C-alpha cells in the first residue's frame, strides 16, 4: 500500500476513535441516569453542577452512580488494552489476560484472606488481590522462561493454563473447608462495579490510568513484535525486554481490573478484535481505540445488568459472559475455517 493509502486509512481510524470517544461520553451519561430510578438530563445536570445535600437524586448520582460509572469505564478500557497486548504477545487471537492466571491468582489470595482473616479492610483485600494476580503471572513467566531465550507464546499459554487450573483448585478447596467464606467472595466470582465507593477504589483507579498511559512508548515496538520474534530481533528490538514489559503492563491493567470489579469475562478477548476491524493493524491506532471501545461496552453492559430485571440486578460478569460467549463461538469457528 502506498503512503497515500496508509494516510487515508489512518485518517479514517482517527475519525472512528473520535466517534467512539463521543459514544463513550454518551454511555457515561446514560450510566449516570440509568437504574431503578431513571433520571432525565436536567436532573443529571443539576446533580453534577449544582447539587443539593438534601436532594435524593443528587445524592444518588454523586455517591452511587458516579463511582460506578468511573469504575466501569476504567476497568473496560484496562481490559481492552490488556487483551490487545496479550494477543500481540502470544500472537494468538483467542488469548485473553485470564490465560496468564491473573483472575485465578487474585481469587485465590482473596479466598485465602477471607478464610484465614475473616472480615478484613477493603484496602487489605485490594492489595491481596493485586498481589495474587502479580504472583500468578510471575509464576507463569518463570515456568515458561528458558535460560537465554525469549518466552515462546505456546509455552506461555500452556504454563498459564496449568497454573490457572491449580489456583482454581486451591480456591475451591478453601471454600469447601470454609463455606461461610463463599458469601464474601461472591463479588469476585460474579464480577460487579456496584457498591464500590471511590474512597477505597481510587488508588487502583490511578494505577490503571498510569498503566494505560505507559503503553504509549511501546506501540511502535508491538507493531514489529506482531510480525514475529525473528523479525523483531532483526529490526533491533530487545524482544525479551519487550516481552517482560508487556507482561508487566498486562499484570497491572488486568490485576487492577480484577481488584476493582472481580471476574469480568470476555471483554479482554472481544474488544481487541472489534478495534482491529475498525482501525488499521497499527497498534498506534487500534490499541487506543480498544481502550475506548472497552469502556463503552462495559458501561453499556452495566446499564443492561441493572435495568433488565428490575428491581434486581444481573452480575456484571454474567452479563459480559452472555454478550461475549456468542462472539467467542463465532470467533473460534472463524479461526477454524481460516486454518482448516
TrEMBL record:
Please give the start and end residues of each transmembrane region.
Answer: 69-86, 98-117, 123-144, 156-177, 197-215, 245-274, 286-308, 314-332
What is this protein identified as?
Answer: Iron ABC transporter permease
UniProt lists the family membership as follows: Belongs to the binding-protein-dependent transport system permease family. FecCD subfamily.
GO biological process terms held by the UniProt record:
siderophore-iron import into cell
The superkingdom of the source organism is: Bacteria
Q: Name one GO molecular function term.
A: transmembrane transporter activity
Instruction: Respond yes or no to whether keyword Lyase is given for this record.
Output: no
Task: Give the organism the record lists.
Answer: Salinicola corii
Please verify whether the record's keywords include Metal-binding: no
- Pfam families reported for this sequence: FecCD
Concerning CDD domains, the annotation shows: TM_ABC_iron-siderophores_like
Q: Write out the entry's keywords from A to Z.
A: Cell membrane, Membrane, Transmembrane, Transmembrane helix, Transport
The cellular location(s) given in this protein's UniProt record come to: Cell membrane
Topology with respect to the bilayer: Multi-pass membrane protein
Positions in coiled-coil regions = none
Where is it found, in Gene Ontology cellular component terms?
Answer: plasma membrane
Amino acid at each position: 500500500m502506498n503512503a497515500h493509502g496508509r494516510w487515508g486509512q489512518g485518517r479514517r481510524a482517527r475519525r472512528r476513535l473520535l466517534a467512539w470517544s463521543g459514544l463513550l461520553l454518551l454511555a457515561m451519561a446514560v450510566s449516570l441516569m440509568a437504574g431503578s430510578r431513571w433520571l432525565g438530563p436536567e436532573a443529571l445536570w443539576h446533580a453534577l453542577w449544582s447539587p443539593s445535600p438534601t436532594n435524593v437524586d443528587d445524592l444518588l448520582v454523586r455517591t452511587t452512580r458516579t463511582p460506578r460509572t468511573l469504575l466501569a469505564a476504567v476497568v473496560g478500557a484496562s481490559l481492552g488494552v490488556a487483551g490487545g497486548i496479550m494477543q500481540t504477545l502470544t500472537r494468538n487471537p483467542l488469548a485473553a489476560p485470564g490465560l496468564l492466571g491473573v483472575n485465578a491468582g487474585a481469587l485465590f489470595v482473596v479466598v485465602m484472606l477471607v478464610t484465614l482473616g475473616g472480615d478484613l479492610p477493603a484496602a487489605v483485600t485490594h492489595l491481596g488481590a493485586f498481589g495474587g494476580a502479580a504472583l500468578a503471572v510471575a509464576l507463569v513467566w518463570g515456568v515458561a522462561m528458558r535460560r537465554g531465550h525469549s518466552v515462546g507464546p505456546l509455552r506461555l499459554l500452556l504454563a498459564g493454563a496449568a497454573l490457572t487450573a491449580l489456583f482454581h483448585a486451591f480456591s475451591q478447596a478453601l471454600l469447601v473447608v470454609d463455606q461461610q467464606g463463599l458469601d464474601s467472595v461472591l463479588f469476585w466470582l460474579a464480577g460487579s462495579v456496584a457498591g464500590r465507593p471511590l474512597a477505597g477504589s481510587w488508588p487502583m483507579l490511578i494505577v490503571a490510568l498510569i498503566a494505560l498511559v505507559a503503553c504509549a512508548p511501546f506501540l511502535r515496538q508491538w507493531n514489529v513484535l506482531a510480525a514475529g520474534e525473528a523479525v523483531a530481533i532483526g529490526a533491533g528490538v530487545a524482544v525479551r525486554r519487550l516481552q517482560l514489559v508487556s507482561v508487566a503492563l498486562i499484570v497491572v491493567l488486568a490485576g487492577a481490573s480484577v481488584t476493582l470489579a472481580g471476574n469480568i469475562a470476555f471483554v479482554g478477548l472481544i474488544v481487541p478484535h472489534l478495534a482491529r476491524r475498525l482501525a488499521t493493524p497499527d497498534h498506534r491506532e487500534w490499541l487506543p481505540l480498544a481502550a475506548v471501545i472497552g469502556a463503552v461496552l462495559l458501561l453499556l453492559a452495566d446499564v443492561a445488568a441493572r435495568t433488565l430485571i428490575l428491581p434486581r440486578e444481573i452480575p456484571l460478569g454474567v452479563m459480559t459472559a452472555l454478550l461475549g460467549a456468542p462472539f467467542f463461538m463465532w470467533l473460534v469457528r472463524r479461526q477454524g475455517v481460516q486454518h482448516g
